[in-house]
């Protein structure tokens, strides 16, 4: 009984201890490491002629208690409500990471942090992207000082540090304050589909923001959507574009484009302006429509000497570039196919929906060596994982023997008649030339 009462008494303490441990685990910063390149543009006397020089140096983005013994610039992430590593849970070989300075010169808007406002923050951006274009995330990192450093005591008295030199082995303490990300940096779509272009953002405090979507392709530029966060109102919305207004203030700035057309491919820019920071993601949309390939015949029976034209139609494909080849295969594939060279193409024909058609022609005169030959039309296009192939099987029969006999007989008869006529003429000439007796 005493043991039971003790267990009942200790149970709340166990539950409290477990809750404390769980809370501590939630705030524990995981040990994470990401290799990056620190990119800077250096000005020189030749800048006006050749432009600034881009310098890249090795850097690491660290969180937790990790230490690096390599020669590199270390950006050590401090505790923040935003976690840049939530977007990079992949193998390092699949990732690209670039860190750059971010200037707020001329934008005198304070950034709120820890109950204070300052306009002398030093900012960096770290852009992490999947090399296969499955996501891109750009985080704005604010440089902070260690609480016990002398530099921290004099921080308020310092002037602008945006251009201060950074050594090859320096360690900078940074805190993520703002993130703009997309899971659709490159989208390949078919025609007539509905497409959601993803753009999300996270801010470490509640503040005003503006959202702007723009489109550009082959000299065409237009605004698609703009939103004023301070007044919570849409200022512009292009026809055919939809937004998720019920989610826009919770970090979802995505748009939907209905019924994709050829004219919708191009570059889309999502800008989320949180003064003094501009978060921008550029998204590429490519329209890919696979060709419909057909040949005029599946099989063909010919007589020796017949002339035949084969046609291969590739229709309703986009973009324009397509490769069509004719190949000749003998028998059961024991020999490599031969590419045909005497091929003619029609001009590209454009359909109303912007797709294209093209026809390829191949002409030949049947011979006995074409018997049991397969002619193949092979079409390659960027929308295809593997080429489309269409086959025409050819059978060739020799000319009938009786016909050959008749043709031979006629030929011999003609020759004989010609010889007889020739002999008659020679005899006449000979007789005329004989001398007459007197």
UniProtKB/TrEMBL annotation:
Residue intervals of the Ig-like domain: 193-272, 291-389
The keyword Signal is annotated on this UniProt entry: yes
PROSITE patterns in UniProt: IG_LIKE, IG_MHC
Transmembrane segments: 402-426
Signal peptide: 1-23
SMART domains from the UniProt entry: IG, IGc1
Keyword terms of this UniProt record: Glycoprotein, Membrane, Signal, Transmembrane, Transmembrane helix
Matching SUPFAM superfamilies: Immunoglobulin
Protein name: Ig-like domain-containing protein
């Amino acid at each position: 009984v005493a043991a039971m009462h003790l267990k009942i008494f200790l149970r709340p303490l166990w539950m409290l201890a477990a809750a404390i441990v769980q809370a501590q685990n939630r705030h524990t910063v995981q040990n994470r490491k990401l290799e990056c390149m620190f990119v800077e543009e250096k000005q020189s006397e030749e800048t006006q002629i050749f432009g600034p020089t881009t310098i890249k140096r090795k850097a690491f983005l660290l969180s937790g208690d990790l230490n690096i013994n390599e020669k590199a610039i270390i950006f050590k992430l401090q505790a923040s409500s935003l976690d840049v590593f939530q977007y990079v849970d992949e193998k390092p070989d699949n990732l690209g990471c670039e860190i750059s300075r971010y200037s707020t010169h001329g934008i005198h808007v304070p950034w709120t942090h820890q109950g204070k406002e300052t306009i002398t923050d030093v900012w960096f951006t770290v852009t992490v992207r999947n090399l296969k274009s499955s996501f891109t995330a750009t985080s704005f990192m604010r440089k902070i000082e260690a609480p016990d450093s002398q530099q921290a005591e004099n921080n308020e008295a310092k002037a602008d540090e945006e251009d201060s030199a950074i050594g090859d082995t320096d360690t900078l303490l940074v805190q993520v304050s703002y993130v703009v990300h997309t899971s659709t940096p490159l989208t390949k779509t078919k025609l007539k589909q509905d497409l959601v272009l993803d753009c999300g953002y996270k801010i470490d405090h509640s503040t005003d923001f503006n959202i702007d979507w723009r489109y550009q392709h082959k000299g065409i530029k237009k605004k698609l959507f703009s939103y004023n966060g301070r007044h919570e109102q849409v200022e512009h919305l292009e026809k055919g574009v939809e937004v998720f207004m019920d989610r826009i203030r919770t970090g979802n700035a995505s748009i939907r484009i209905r019924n994709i057309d050829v004219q919708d491919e191009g570059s889309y820019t999502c800008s989320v302006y949180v003064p003094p920071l501009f978060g921008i993601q550029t998204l590429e949309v490519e329209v890919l429509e696979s060709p419909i390939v057909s040949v005029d015949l599946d099989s063909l029976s010919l007589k020796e000497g017949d002339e035949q034209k084969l046609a291969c139609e590739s229709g309703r494909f986009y973009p324009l570039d397509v490769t069509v080849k004719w190949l000749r295969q003998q028998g059961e594939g024991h020999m490599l196919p031969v590419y045909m060279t005497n091929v003619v193409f029609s001009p590209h024909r454009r359909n109303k929906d912007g797709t294209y058609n093209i026809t390829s022609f191949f002409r030949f005169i049947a011979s006995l060596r074409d018997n049991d030959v397969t002619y193949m039309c092979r079409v390659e296009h960027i929308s295809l994982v593997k080429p489309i192939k269409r086959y025409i099987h050819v059978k060739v029969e020799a000319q009938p023997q009786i016909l050959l006999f008749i043709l031979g007989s006629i030929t011999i008869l003609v020759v004989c008649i010609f010889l007889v006529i020739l002999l008659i003429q020679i005899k006449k000439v000979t007789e005329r030339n004989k001398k007459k007796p007197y």
